[in-house]
Amino acid sequence: MVQAAIVTKWKFVMSNNKKFQKYINYIDRDEATRSKEFQQYNILESDGYNQYMENPEKSSGLFTANKNRLSKEERNTVKKLFRQAQKNDSLMWQDVVSFDTNWLIEVGLYDPKAKILNEEKIMNAIRVAMNEQLKAENLRNSAVWTAAIHYNEIHHIHVHIAIVEPEPTREYGTFTRKDGSTYEARKGYRSKRNVDRFRSQVMSQLLDRDQPLAKISSMIRTQLGNHKGNMRYLPDTELKYLYNKIYESLPPDRGKWKYNMNVLNAIRPTIDRFISTYLNAYEKEGYKELQNLLDENVAFYMNLYGEGTKEFQRAKDFKTNKNKELYTRLGNALLKEMSEQNKKENEIPTKSTSVDWNKLVENQYQKRNDTHSKNIDLSKVKKALRKDFQSIKNQQIYLKNMREREQQEQGLIR
């Protein structure tokens, strides 16, 4: 099973927790001391996550939303804000973002020989993701945070983050202890959806996912899924055969000629065959590029969440859904063209239109004759001819009446 490239974990403590005070105490200490005494202020070590949370061998030093490095004076300012938060009964959230070292090497963020990490890119990714996370949790205008990159030879490189509210906005709630007693405390819950998005945004920033996702949408909407011209006249024998087969199988009501309508369930496989043949014959390179982009997206989520997870399955579903979107667009374009064709073939001329009435009847007869000429069942042929004869007879009567009315208005019949 593929291991997740990024793992996140979070926890919170109340203001009276000893580790809240310990974190404050170590904010303005040097990095060697902070690394050595890491367990004094780490609240995640007792939550089954200690395999990534040993005392780091070294640390990047504290960074914030605006600074890569803090001066002594800036550390003191941050320390005062954390003290203010504790005094005002704020919660302290701690997050850890752990990176798989092999993945960091693979994507060029870590040089194992020189032991150099692209810290700036990691910091910027954390900043963007934190900004969105705090916004989603309604904390962006009230929270402050600090973070540090921790290195350890045994386990993964990870980022440790601490968040507080100097002027708390989280409401109080009533909670029940294991012994059944209750207590009042601020609500520290963060939604799983927001936490998952945080992880996804970190990776998206590191790999710049916006561009390939935008390209997938663009290819479907404006390139592959936006066919211009008549599919009816494409110079391909199989496509012509499939076109006629689809057209002849459509229901009488043109209003139901939509790709995803249930009434087309029986004919949809033939429509899909037409689209597949068209894409491989006329859009081969573009279609191949689209599939590569979709496969890369699946691999992205496999690395992010690990193989076999629900999130990985959703990524596979994303590929399926995007291909379905492409087929829907092309299918509807094909059916729209057929609808226009059918509309023209069945137009009834108005009395003001100059028409060769005999030619019209002849064309109608020829069209119907062509439609049934491939059927070798004699009884069906006879039945079809009887229907054709009656239809043409009815049309002749109708057209005769139309002619007479037209002549009357022109004063030709007195």
TrEMBL record:
<dbReference type="InterPro" id="IPR048101">
    <property type="entry name" value="MobP2"/>
</dbReference>
<protein>
    <recommendedName>
        <fullName>Relaxase</fullName>
    </recommendedName>
</protein>
<dbReference type="Pfam" id="PF18555">
    <property type="entry name" value="MobL"/>
</dbReference>
<dbReference type="InterPro" id="IPR041073">
    <property type="entry name" value="MobL"/>
</dbReference>
